[in-house]
Amino acid sequence: MKNVKIHVKLRRLVKSLAVGIFVPFILVAGSAFKPFDENGDPKKPTAKDVLLNDKSGFKSLFSASFFDPTKPYVTQLNPNAVPFVQNYIREEGANLEKMKVWGKPYFDMYDGILRQYNLPIELKYLSVIESSLVPGSVSVAGAVGPWQIMAGEAKRLGLRISGSKDERTNVYKSTHAAAKILTELHKQFKDWLLVIAAYNCGAGRVRQAIRKSGTNNFWDLQAFLPAETRSHVKRFIGTHFIFEGNGGLTTMTASELSDFDLNAAALANNSASKPEDEANGIVHVSGKYKSSVIAKNLGIDLSAFDKMNPNFDKVVGTGQTYNMKLPTEKISLFSNNKNTILDESIKAMLNI
Q1: 171-189 and 104-116 helices cross at what angle (nearest 10)?
Q2: CB atoms < 10 A from the CB of 205, how many?
Q3: Rounded-to-10 torsion of CA 74, 48, 263, 251
Q4: Signed CA dihedral, 263, 266, 267, 269: sign only
Q5: Per residue in 223-252, pLDDT tens?
Q6: What angle do CA 26, 240, 308 make, to 5 degrees?
Q7: pTM over 0.85
Q8: d(CA 42, CA 89)
Q9: Which residues contact 129 (CB under 8 A, 6 or more apart)?
């Protein structure tokens, strides 16, 4: 019995050490997963590291003193997901880093289609965990294609399944079908983590979990969901962190997103334009601007614009001011043409 107790204590010690060493690797936004300095020595913990390791809860991670107004939706990892995501990055990180390169044609197509439905483009990572972007993927349950759509859903959404023809394997058509499903689920749950859960196990199972738990917070109701679904949501979060280097609005619960929006709005409203902002490539914009139209008019690659301005369309679409980041040489071009760009953006939205 004494040996068993010692063994348990050792396991706990190793686990605590692993978390203490590895958490900064995951949580420090913008660190590109580098816990060491240029000499290969461990970095000394900063005040920000201490905050990110605070055990008081997720809301403390949204402290205004560490909020970057140029990146409205750069967030930290929810403590409930830390152990899973640590293991997931160790096991899948290398393969997913390679997918960033060979999967780019898929992601470019996904981005365009998801924008048409006014969905966060980060939802493209759902296809990564559903099928690893394999168009002909077939699950044990009979789901098919890069988005793993069941036959009944596919037919409901107009995809043809007959003989050797199965449009669920058509990347373009199946992505439109998946976007419709995601739109329907978000109208029902208004929470992206619950949408990811419902996509996996069905809306009925999620509603049942909400009833049994008495809450619609994923982290509080997850025990009432199938183990596969709990894993599915955390894999989505882990994939998002690997590809983006941080979290986003699709990795937060509705309540976390609400808290974050309040911080974002307060900081945006309290930040008047300053000459030094433009010198640093920051322009405060509000109105029905569209990222693709801005990028086209300024001659900026759309993916590069998205990297500089995460979730631009989502934020300006809710009426908030966005601190848009541009190459400094593009500032005057935007200022001189902003009315034309706004007009074109509105027309593009109406056409969609």
Answers
A1: 50
A2: 16
A3: 40
A4: positive
A5: 999 999 999 999 999 999 888 877 778 988
A6: 90
A7: no
A8: 20
A9: 232, 235, 236, 239
